[in-house]
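Hi, here's the filled form for the chain we discussed.

Project: internal
Contact: R.S.
Residues: 225
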Amino acid sequence: MFQGFSGATVDFMWGIRFNNEKSWFEAHKEDYITHFQRPMKELANEVYTRFLDEHPDLDLVCKVSRIYRDARRLFGRGPYKDHLWLSLVRPHVEAGSEPVFWFELAPEEWSCGMGFWMAPPLTMAKFRARMDRDPKPMEQLARRFNKQEQFLLEGEDYKRPKPAPSPLLDPWYRKKSFALSHSAPHQDLLWSHALADTLLDSFTFLLPYYQYVLSLSGDPDPRQA
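And the returned structure, exactly as it came back:
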């Protein structure tokens, strides 16, 4: 069971940020395993198991990021990440093509949410076409979202967005890609089992938005209309 991260977790993250080289990492590898990798995997396993127990119809797998960067994409950076994340995603899906649930822990802050790294243009075209054709379901979700204060709607807007079916849908309609995300500085929540409860509650709140986006796959391509 996940018991929480610790000050040693944060110390390691800052350490690898300022000493991003093999010799330092190898000397502190046990700190990484004990205080960072192991609790992240424990958190991932607990949140995944509990979430799927409550929603057994979801076809999801749980992934925890590796600390090692892809050697082909270092771009002058060190070989290690100074942050880790977990994600719940459908199996056998191309990365970025569908939304994911995530939690990330970095040296300065933590974040969680649901969304795309970069939504495919076809998905967002279907999203807008669905709102044009039947705006009420998404308006209901937009009202629900506007009543809460935990998550923000984030993502790049089109430079010249088309008019939305209603002002309520305008922030969603203008997105090229989007995420519903929460971020905060380190806080006591991270050091306790309550973090698992918070993530479970967060993913449960975000589930209707996830299901709405997945349902778009069966819609026709509006670009061929």
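Let me know if anything looks off before we file it.
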